[in-house]
Amino acid sequence: MRHRLTGCMLTLSMAAITALSAQPALAQDEVSVMSFGGAYQAAWRKAGFEPYMKDTGIKVIEQEYGGEIAKIKAMIESGNVTLDAVDVDAPTLLQGCDEGIFEKIDWDKIGPKDDWIDGTTSRCGVGTIVYATILAYDGARHPDGPKTIADLFDTKKFPGKRGLWKNPATNLEFALLADGVAPGDVYDLLATSKGVDRAFAKLDTIKSDVVWWEAGAQAPQLLASGEVVMSTAWNGRIDHANKEGKDFRIVWDHEILDSNYWVIPKGAKNIEGSMAFIKYAVQPKILANVTNYIPYGPVRKSATEFVEPEVAKILPTNPENMNGALTLDNAFWADHGDEIRRRFTTWIAQ
């Protein structure tokens, strides 16, 4: 039997639909975020995610990844974006912005951009922390260890293996800095074939003594095992090892600074909720609290006053630790990276 809506019934049905559509959207009950795991994500969990859940009643669902942009792109291309915010490094930010896979940031809903350290704001990313690639050694094994970045290349004074990140970025910069190039001139020189040749020539002097590491946890492992006498490393990894009883020491000479960012993947289901989460996560007190768990400097100037004095001493942004510091030029690597990486790969294989 067919059923027919009368005019009255149709009117009532349409009224009901209109009333339902006029209801406010369900309040957000969870936010899904993805970051880099390990001690870093644990620091964010304690300093940011747990306070956010307590203050808002919104549950934080965590995922981890290795920083690969392909994972973010695959989710977007599938049309099923399940993440509200993603923690990315600077190269991923640049690539994602260029390819349009991140939502634009409404800075009016985040905070005053001039409170962020230069270079840590973007049209589609909000700076979070500043970390450093540094030179480190085991003080228990080598109490009179290296003092400058030049010592990384001095195999007569410090014989033995040295660990390097298997990536041309930071290695070419360290090579030129150790060869006497001023920080302000490094990228102008690397933009020339002469400068690249000079960097590789410097790396040639220690090539036979290099042990390559690819994951951040490997650098402190190489130091702990005694396989290397020194290694470049990420400063947070060294601090984490020391909290577990090691006596690793950082050479605060010509550190290379870099930043991470919160981004919103294109097609996120609740943009306003994503913005609200990011705004909370980059509050000055939250950023300062992160430093209590991992020694990465806050990107906001107003966060400095909330950092514990003893903690400030081991941050890469501490003025006393910034002797000859260089900020990694990710735009340079975006423009020149493919060509240099091909040469780097060939050089390693030779």
How would you describe this structure to a colleague?
The protein has 13 helices and 11 strands. The protein is α/β, with parallel strands linked by helices. Strands 1, 2, 3, 4, 5, 6, 7, 8, 9, 10 and 11 form an 11-stranded mixed β-sheet that branches. Mean pLDDT is 91; it is low at 1-26.
Provide a compact summary of the structure.
This protein has 350 residues and is an alpha/beta fold. Helices cover 40% and strands 19% of the residues.
Number of strand elements: 11
Name given to the CATH architecture of the largest domain: 3-Layer(aba) Sandwich
Provide the β-strand percentage band. Answer: 15-25%
The CATH homologous superfamily of the largest domain: Periplasmic binding protein-like II
Contiguous uncertain segments of 5+ residues = 1-26
Share of helix among residues?
Answer: 40-55%
| CATH fold description of the largest domain | D-Maltodextrin-Binding Protein, domain 2
Question: What labels describe this entry?
Answer:
350 residues, 19% strand, disordered N terminus, eleven-stranded mixed beta sheet, D-Maltodextrin-Binding Protein, domain 2, alpha/beta, 11 strands
What is the element layout, followed by pairings?
Elements: H1 7-22, E1 30-35, H2 38-56, E2 59-64, H3 69-77, E3 85-89, H4 90-99, E4 121-122, E5 125-138, E6 162-165, H5 168-178, H6 186-190, H7 193-204, E7 210-213, H8 218-225, E8 230-234, H9 235-243, E9 248-263, H10 271-281, H11 284-290, E10 297-298, H12 309-312, E11 326-327, H13 330-349
Parallel strand pairs: 1-2, 1-3, 6-7, 6-8, 9-11
Antiparallel strand pairs: 3-9, 4-5, 5-8, 5-9, 5-10
